[in-house]
Amino acid sequence: LYGPPGCGKTLLARAVATESKANFISIKGPELLSKWVGESEKAIREVFRKARMASPCIIFFDEFDSIAPSRGRHTSDSGVTEKVLSQLLTELDGLESKKDIVVIAATNRPDILDPALIRPGRIDRILLVPAPDEMSRKAILKIFTEDMPLTNNLKIEALNDLIGDGFSGADIETWCRESAMIALRENIRARKISLEHFKEAIADIHPTITPDMKK
């Protein structure tokens, strides 16, 4: 899974695990890297060992580019990254006969992944998780405001008009939460959140998705 940050790659992986009723192991790439010789490769082996014990299982690698960049990119890490990549390739090749373990990875930088990973039998499905469009932003707003006590005349369309293409799902969640906090700071006994609270909050929320990320 690749795409801009905050657009639901991790959420999508968790949803797959829930719907398939599989066990779920979530790993952030940098967590596997160690300064001690051999520890990073050992961590990779341990992840796959646990997955085999807990099968059916989904292994989810977040920030995948940190452990699987193209070989030759890192010249100052004593070859740790290349050793980790080699161990990862070995483990992926060993899964061909294990149909009940699935590997899902997420990255914001698919362009720097090692080509050896992206081939049939290893990671052979590449899916874009795009920035939300207008309809998606409305749907996300409905989810995050569903349990919020909005003023009666406040419509989702009015909120959607305040945000643009650069807002991710995570940005919208932060905006809704900050709007509620502003209402409480204004009056600790506040019962409603108004459009003015959302307008005040939007001034401090900067969209994380840049035009370059969409390319």
TrEMBL record:
Keyword DNA damage listed: no
Alphabetic keyword roster: ATP-binding, Coiled coil, Nucleotide-binding
Name used for this protein in its record: AAA+ ATPase domain-containing protein
Domain AAA+ ATPase stretches: 1-133
UniProt xrefs under InterPro entries: AAA+_ATPase (IPR003593), AAA_ATPase_domain (IPR050168), AAA_lid_3 (IPR041569), ATPase_AAA_core (IPR003959), ATPase_AAA_CS (IPR003960), P-loop_NTPase (IPR027417)
Pfam family, one: AAA_lid_3
Organism: marine sediment metagenome
A single GO molecular function term of this UniProt record: ATP binding
Keyword Acyltransferase: no
